[in-house]
Amino acid sequence: MKLNATVEAVTARIRERSRPARGAYLQRLEAAAAREPSADRMGCANVAHAFAAMPANDKLKVVTARAPNIGIVTAYNDMLSAHAPLQYYPDMIKAEARKFGATAQVAGGVPAMCDGVTQGTPGMELSLFSRDVIAMATAVALSHDMFAGALMLGVCDKIVPGLLIGALHFGYLPTVFVPGGPMPSGLSNSEKGKVRERAAQGLVGRAELLQAESAAYHAPGTCTFYGTANSNQMLLEAMGLHVPGAAFVNPGNALRAELTREAARTVLGTGTRASAAGPSQGARAPSGGSEGHAVPSVGAKCPPIGKIVDERCIVNAMVALLATGGSTNHLIHWVAVARAAGLTIDWDDFAALSGVVPTLTRVYPNGSADVNQFQAAGGPGFVIRELLDAGLMHEDVLTVRPGGLREYTRVPEWHAPAKKAADLVPMTLAEEVTDLLPAASEEAALEGLLWRDAGASKDTGIVRPAAQPFSPHGGLQLLQGNLGRSVIKVSAIPDDRHIIEAPARVFDSQEGLHAAFRAGELDRDVICVVRWQGPQANGMPELHKLTPPLAVLQSKGFKVALVTDGRMSGASGKVPAAIHVSPEASAGGPLAKVIDGDLIRLDAEAGTLQVLLPEAAWAAREAAVMPEALRAANAHDLGREMFSAMRRNALTAEEGACTWL
């Protein structure tokens, strides 16, 4: 299928505008890759320190046999349900590496906070900047410079972008991302949302609300809605940085464990081909591409991540985000990821792609299904195949696998007799896994990790082919006008709410909005403006706690919308929200000029966000200044004072809110 003209044009302009920075980036990669192996390059004391804690046989492999040593960077902690399963991964990876004459070490850990825990609290003001802290911690881990490749263990919101940014600064290393998978389905997201709305109205108490929340978030694994964490996994599949199909396999079963082992094999260049016909099928021929980027032949080494993540790879991620109605947070995060690879993208690029990329999925908050149902209906493999076949993704790209992006249209399966359970996972998990293994069968001709084609959609209410999409356009939309530039997630909003025109009510904090709601002051058509929420003001927290009260107002029949320079959770939807408004109010952006009663028009169909005032009157109005008491309050407690330099130096949301440039 010929590549879509708009996709081709967007890719070309990214390539052209990025040429100087990308060229310099690739030169640095080549210079780093040309060095001698670390065990030869480093001094004897350096090497001795690096391998002092290794078992004797592993030391011998690395120093004498020049065996590859894989660095593991892990975001494990058991505060995050999604990261709790990562506890067992390093031992599995080390054991698998030894089978192939290699070694592996935990190079370092990175912090990983849960936005679900900090949502609506001062701790959320550390959330966005934790991405750059994670990137820096990744750099610290890999700065030991003793590695032939790397495995990144992480799943959730800021963790994956942070790991990816950090890894790209060591772009000469082959690097594979290793997820943990979603928790099994619990209380449905729609039912949970209804209880939250009832709680916002005072109709249920804390005990009933906690019961509902605990029934939704109930086990190890990623939360099951299609928020930022699960959008991360979809994008990594589209970029070819996972083992194919690894994104949404639940923790604690044999397939999940074997995919983790396959990640170790993949970074070593010994993985199994993910073809429908089995490992012996030849690689699909590439359809073209820039020099040095042809799909490698079967058996080739895992390419370095800095060469995988080029302009085509980034566009593939953007297309996958739009086609699935993914998290709006990625209009910030993937701008920063691209910058780490010497590439410059902006919201105009997203807007152009959104005009030609159809919406292929309905997963909460864009529908009622969760990610387990999405996986069962076809999952990432189905979506990637449809986008490739429609000419909406670049197929001529490198991935961590020898067969290129076509491998990511497959669904993994594990075929093995139950007696092998103890070999599949650490002994601490063996009993748990035994009952989950497929039964042994005399008719089974194949054993091991295999892949099959995703096939047709198993539920067209969840995933649809590109020829019959839910919408001909992508799930995210750029808005611009005299209030600045912002984004809106249209895939989660009813069609009759795409245009909202109403008087403004201005708030300096989310607490102010809650107070006005409880006092009954918002029972009318209203556009709530919540300002001083950008990166420079207070670290740009998510404002997901605003969704229940605004949803209550909307359910009463009022025309309601939110306009803010803050973020919304990847799980937010239902209520129209123009978010990430740039420039932010604290930097003199136009939100600082809005006053109560101003008539605002949010038009997601025309792509506009306007205060309906005569141009001269709007230009003459003075901008408010962020109250000093509010700025001071944002600067202390829960460690916020240690992030003051990040607030001062942060770029705009559209520039990725980067603090390291």
TrEMBL record:
Pathway: Carbohydrate metabolism; Entner-Doudoroff pathway. Its EC number is 4.2.1.12. Residues 270-296 are annotated as: Disordered. It catalyses: 6-phospho-D-gluconate = 2-dehydro-3-deoxy-6-phospho-D-gluconate + H2O. GO terms for cellular component: cytosol. Residues 462-657 form the Dihydroxy-acid/6-phosphogluconate dehydratase C-terminal domain. [4Fe-4S] cluster binds at C156, C223. Keywords: 4Fe-4S, Carbohydrate metabolism, Gluconate utilization, Iron, Iron-sulfur, Lyase, Metal-binding. Binds 1 [4Fe-4S] cluster. Its cofactor is [4Fe-4S] cluster. Residues 68-406 form the Dihydroxy-acid/6-phosphogluconate dehydratase N-terminal domain. One of its GO terms (molecular function) is phosphogluconate dehydratase activity. HAMAP family: Edd. Catalyzes the dehydration of 6-phospho-D-gluconate to 2-dehydro-3-deoxy-6-phospho-D-gluconate. This is Phosphogluconate dehydratase. The gene is edd.
